[in-house]
Design a protein that fits this description.
mainly beta; globular
Length: 122
């Protein structure tokens, strides 16, 4: 089992950058594929990005492609989401997720963090 704790959220102006972190504890991060999702007020949770356990393969939502980068440091048991050129529509609670076997855009990850708020002002 793994526990996930997100951090790094905050308030930023449009065009700015933030880096989110997802620190894991329990079983080693190397055992898990990881994903980032976000949920805006009144909307369903949506896929943002995912990375395989090795870090060699990544996928992104079209809305963030070219602006966001997912990465991982298995030695530090941390996954990152670098967010550049932020837009007001990126405002949401951002969640990281982990799964030992599933890797993709769906909600089939077994473990989820509590989320971190990102607010982008115009």
């Amino acid at each position: 089992q793994v526990q996930l704790v997100e951090s790094g959220g905050g308030l930023v102006q449009a065009g700015g950058s933030l880096r989110l972190s997802c620190a894991t504890s329990g079983r080693t991060l190397r055992a898990y594929h990881m994903g980032w999702f976000r949920q805006a007020p009144g909307k369903e949770r949506k896929f943002v990005a995912a990375i395989r356990w090795s870090g060699l393969h990544t996928i992104y939502a079209e809305s963030v492609k070219g602006r966001f980068t997912i990465s991982r440091d298995n030695a530090e048991n941390t996954v990152y989401l670098q967010m550049n050129s932020l837009k007001p529509e990126d405002t949401a609670i951002y969640y990281c997720a982990a799964d030992e076997s599933y890797w993709g855009r769906g909600y089939d990850y077994d473990y989820w963090g509590q989320g971190t708020q990102v607010t982008v002002s115009s």
